[in-house]
Protein 1
Amino acid sequence: MNSSSNQTKAYDFKTRDIKVLKKLLPYLLKMRARVIWAVSFLMLAKLANVAVPLALKEIVDSLDQTNIILVLPLGMLLAYGLLRLASSLFNELRDAIFAKVRYHAMNLIALGVFQAFTYFGFILSFGSTHWRYNP
């Protein structure tokens, strides 16, 4: 037996994802400004998410000092809360902005599929047989 012929090939996610993105690109480009805003909010949310642990580290490090002023840890704690809020806010804004793009693209794709089904259904029902009306 040849064991190499029975082996399954690894699924190539990278090329498959690129193909899907190329097919979706025309739908996304119709609402270019909304897509740019959504990607911008996504990046801001990720930056705020990365800054949260850094702010928490600074809070803990500032509490270790002996000559500490109480305002510094409270300010850092406030910054931590604001970063957490900013992360959630930017994620929600991204979802709100991109929702119209997502539903518009889904609508156009569904319409294309429906038109293809109705076209092929028409061809299958009337194209292969010669339909005649006999009263």
Protein 2
Amino acid sequence: MSMFLAAALTAATVADIEIKAARLDYARPANTFGYSAIVANNGPESAQGVEVVVLLPPGATLRNAEPCVGAGSLVRCAIGTLAPGEERRVFMLVLTREMKPRVTAFAVSETADTNASNNTREATTP
């Protein structure tokens, strides 16, 4: 292995981002539900360019989202940089005709992730 390659591998930044929690709650009327997710960085280093991507049920309409933008059933929430141990919450109100909607959230980052198995979480209504 060349010294240049060894230095590049040593300098690589890694983090473990995770969707720690996801929750759906009905907020009647008109089948509106609230959805929230918590994204966290379990370290060891800062995660850059973190984003939470949420898949809504087919036919759902995004009413309000912080800090997110949506098109159709895809909602993207730009989080930015997360320091080790830091968490952020995203929240949205969604209108749907489904009685038991299912929502899936994915955490992605520009930083290499040491554990991709905890980057996804599904939520359904209670």
Protein 3
Amino acid sequence: MAPKYRATSPRWTLVRQWLCRMGIDELTHSLERHDDWIWLADHSNQIGKAKVLMILGIRQRQLPLPGQTLRHQDVRVLAIRARNSVET
């Protein structure tokens, strides 16, 4: 008879820790040098009092075909910067 295993969800702290590790790994990879990078800047995110600027990039040759949607896996995180929103 096979043993019974009780599957539980991982704790949120473990998920957050792995997401942070993946983010740090993504940000520390060197960027390929090409002249067809397109940048997408988003300054609409806010975490507490901090405003977050995120810059994503995609190579022009990797843009989706007309009529298709740009997906998360299509872009690379190029930079993330946080700044207190009360600063000028």
Protein 4
Amino acid sequence: MRLDALFLFTPAGGSPGGGMAIFLFQMLAILGIFYFLIIRPKVQQEKKHRERLQQIKRGDEIVTAGGIVGEVVHVKDDKLTLKSGEARLVVQRERVADVRSPGETPEKSK
């Protein structure tokens, strides 16, 4: 390709680098939007969930990742003993999907 043909791709009346600055600004704006609308809320939600898992105590009602609903009867390190119906189950703390304290109403999903 000849050098004089490259001038056909530059913006009219402006410097050849002006388009690059606008492009970089647009890319930074898109990355900022993704960060504040998608990434940051997800990180905050995960942090809040980890805090709730550490605060589980006896008597809390929990829902496991598998959908089992039960009441915590014993807490030991990273294992919880649940009473669900007539059965007692031992689950890992990381497998808890939702924690409800006694008397708390479940939130509706949006």
